[in-house]
Amino acid sequence: MIAIADTSPLRYLIMIGEVELLPKLFERIVIPEAIVSELQAEGAPLQVRQWTEQTPHWLEIAPNPSNIPEVTQTLHSGEQAAIALALDCHANLLIIDEKAARQIAQRLGIQITGVIGILKIAAKRQLIEPSEVVQKLRQTNFRMSNQLFRQLLDS
């Protein structure tokens, strides 16, 4: 199974110490170069920037696709590249959190999930303790409703 990841889910999985879930859940995890640039940006948390300095062996970094769908032009460059790469690779899943990007990806026929979806899968496979992960997420600036937190806790 090929999963393409956008910046936000990677960022939060790194921040809560759960990024190593990805190779346990997917055969291949691929990101375009634009995502690496966003993870290394000056405003990114230090631990995220440090993680990108020596990416793990399981993470594949692909060149940015040249055929960006016109419908994605209102999105950030990383989201555009992730959606285009998901289309190019015929990815099984796009891991993306931003609402507008998720809607566009779905319209393009791409299967999506976000960081909460990843954590729910991991909880069902008993790879994480949901209450610990929710506590870690709440210590970041990750924004989500209490209802979604409860859904994760109920996993």
How is the secondary structure organized here?
Blueprint: E1 2-5, H1 7-15, H2 21-25, E2 28-32, H3 33-39, H4 46-53, E3 59-62, H5 77-89, E4 93-95, H6 99-107, E5 112-113, H7 115-124, H8 130-138, H9 146-153
Parallel strand pairs: 1-2, 1-4, 2-3, 4-5
Helix pairs in contact: 3-5, 7-9
Quick tags:
single chain, 155 residues, Rossmann fold, five-stranded parallel beta sheet, 9 helices, 12% strand, globular
By DSSP, the count of extended strands is 5
User: In the CATH hierarchy, what is the architecture at level 2?
Assistant: 3-Layer(aba) Sandwich
Overall geometry comes to globular
Largest sheet, if any? 5 strands, parallel
Q: Low-confidence parts, pLDDT < 50 over ≥5 residues?
A: none
Give, in order, the helices and strands: EHHEHHEHEHEHHH
| Adjacency order of strands in the biggest sheet | 3-2-1-4-5
Count of discrete domains:
1
> What structural class do the secondary elements suggest?
alpha/beta
CATH superfamily: 5'-nuclease
Average pLDDT over all residues: 94
Distance from N terminus to C terminus (CA atoms, Å) equals: 22 Å
CATH topology: the name is Rossmann fold
CATH class identity: Alpha Beta
Helix amount, in percent? 40-55%
| Rg over CA atoms | 15 Å
